């Protein structure tokens, strides 16, 4: 008897589940499909894509990457057909278009496209030479100096502080080969991403001379947080304000950040449909979802990144908006903002950076 | 009498030959799976990597264009050969320290009664139950500026202000790796030492040898195979490690593993990374073979 009852139960359950499945399928023509995403960690968090998955009855399946070269390697491995969406940084946008790894966008299907920052929408590589859009800006950040306010009564106004003997052993660099471009900017070079050979050598020399003053070159936010919390470091070069935000969230109060007078390099991460995407229409919907104000606001709340869609500000608490506006180019009109751009001989950059990190 | 109880040597030999023949097919079947596994998942990837080390990258693709430039780069660029030498030095120091620390511990464990021995061995592996990364971070908390070591030295009055010389340097890498790899030295040492019958030591004493002399001339030579295996375990892992230098090494703890890792990661120059891997491995291999020759020659001299 019990046996029979349990069979009935299972059948009932199956019918119920089936009904739910069918109802989802009836609502969405995409039900059951999977979107394969190649993304930096955090960009397709459940908090961001969960509602999309539910609405369309689809699954977003992500593979995490930690560098833009990883994006290349992964896309290459499958001839561009093994993923549907990627999240590249502005430094590789033009190359992705050139190599035919991403496809042109139909902006009529992106209802939020027009509300995105125009500066970011028109960066080199966001569109091709004819102005056809290929990449949708998603998030951004600018390198800043994070400092201990007990040590610095006035914010350090220049990258020079990173070369100041006075703070020897209490300075943190940034473990990223684009540090070379930041210091090129600090030296006042016109184009930090395509330097003349002698400019490149001058940057290298300056960084080799700086090496003895550096306590460590953190690669992750947690390493910075640890270094400031323990008092090991009083000033650091970082890839964005996220470090300062993380410290504030940890309850560390004597921390602030500043964009130095020489300017800053701004990275912009974008969303793109791969050349071999299985269902480009569905990927367009996901991209539109991710740049909608709600998801953009959530991205800032969870990860403290700068946002491509300023309409999200209306959904954020006052202090978040203040922070976002403070790092905006509009509030720093007297400072240079140079977007991350492709580097011709990236291998040379990485090796040079490795040499610097190892003491030259 | 003995003849009737024991089977003759001839029949024993005959039977075992029969058994061997019968089980040969089984043995081959048994070994086929691991052999296939090793070929597919170890030898083949290593072979591909070796091939890559002679190829080049174009854009973000590896192309079969034969060249020796990566090997040249290794020997001409300070970054590679200097980091390799430094890593060999750190790995050697870690191995030496592990050996010095592990030997007395292993001797102690090996001379316990069998039942106690397994408990002691189990205890030495307790640290390995937690993730390696957790242990690296633990050392960070101990050696850091606001760490346990600094607070202890401050409260004892041995330091006037917290010292930065414990963390984010080669010293921190050395300490962390030694702690991590100690069990890898103890386990093979114990298994060698426990096989040496205590009576041998006794015999040496009976023949007039001083305790220290017996230790030096009997115990040490007999334990050399274990010493070799332990050193091999520790040295290879220490040489190849990149996580410890990345997390506690700071600016002067960078090792060859970190350089190789960034060639495979950030710069996408797999051929150069592969070449650096193979040169480092070759140097390590030469050192290991030398060590093996030394330990086995010495061990043979005292074979019993």
Strand content of chain A: 15-25%
Secondary structural class of chain A:
alpha/beta
CATH class of the largest domain in chain A: Alpha Beta
**Taking Cα atoms only, what radius of gyration of chain B do you get, to the nearest Å?**
25 Å
User: Largest interface here, residues on each chain?
Assistant: A-B, 32 and 32 residues
The shape of chain A is: globular
The number of distinct helices of chain B, counting runs of at least 4 residues, comes to 13
Instruction: Say which CATH homologous superfamily of chain B is assigned.
Output: MetI-like
Number of domains of chain A: 2
**In whole angstroms, how far apart are the ends of chain A?**
80 Å
In CATH, the architecture of the largest domain in chain A is: 3-Layer(aba) Sandwich
Would you write up a description of this structure?
Chain A is α/β, with parallel strands linked by helices and 360 residues long. Chain A has 13 helices and twelve strands. Chain A folds into two domains: 2-139 and 267-324, D-Maltodextrin-Binding Protein, domain 2, CATH 3.40.190; 142-266 and 331-357, Periplasmic binding protein-like II (D-Maltodextrin-Binding Protein, domain 2, 3-Layer(aba) Sandwich), CATH 3.40.190. Helices cover 39% and strands 16% of the residues of chain A. In chain A, the strands form two sheets. In chain A, strands 1, 2, 3, 4, 10, 11 and 12 form a seven-stranded mixed β-sheet that branches. A five-stranded mixed β-sheet of chain A has the order 7-6-8-5-9, with helices on one face. With 304 residues, chain B is mostly helical. Chain B has one domain (77-301): MetI-like fold (Orthogonal Bundle), CATH 1.10.3720.10. Chain B is built from 13 helices and two strands. Chain B has helices spanning 2-5, 9-52, 69-76, 78-110, 114-124, 132-143, 148-155, 170-193, 198-206, 211-240, 243-248, 256-264, 270-301; strands spanning 56-58, 61-63. In chain B, strand 1 and strand 2 form a beta hairpin. In chain B, helix 2 (9-52) runs antiparallel to helix 13. The longest helix of chain B has 44 residues, at 9-52. The interface between A and B is medium-sized, with 32 and 32 residues.
